[in-house]
Specification:
Elements (H helix, E strand, L loop, with lengths): L2 H11 L2 E5 L9 H12 L5 E4 L4 H11 L6 E4 L2 E4 L1 H10 L1 H7 L1
Parallel strand pairs: 1-2
Antiparallel strand pairs: 1-3, 3-4
Helix pairs in contact: 2-4
Length: about 100
């Protein structure tokens, strides 16, 4: 199974997926921690995928999304963005609407 197929399967298997450094309870970078905290504040059930456990996944998710940084948030199969975008969407209320819809 290719890394692209593995990533697509993870995205398809959960309505909210956060590819991050570390885990939601023990983030390994501030940006990943911030996005996990925002999702928790929204009451979202989400799957945290630790890219540090798999170098192929760490590079593969960047290639998959054409986005150079981690964390990366997917909601219902759609790439939302990284820390700055998620933070802005949270401040405006757009993220909460997207999670509830």
């Amino acid at each position: 199974m290719s890394i692209e197929t593995k990533i697509q399967d993870m995205i398809d298997s959960h309505s909210v997926v956060l590819f991050m450094k570390g885990t939601p309870d023990f983030p390994q970078c501030g940006f990943s921690g911030k996005v996990a905290h925002i999702l928790k504040q929204c009451g979202a059930q989400f799957e945290g995928v630790n890219v540090l456990m798999d170098p192929e996944l760490r590079q593969g998710i960047k290639d998959f999304s054409k986005w150079p940084t981690i964390p990366q948030l997917y909601i219902r199969g759609q790439f939302v963005g990284g820390c700055d975008i998620v933070s802005e969407m949270f401040e405006s209320g757009e993220l909460q609407q997207l999670l509830e819809s």
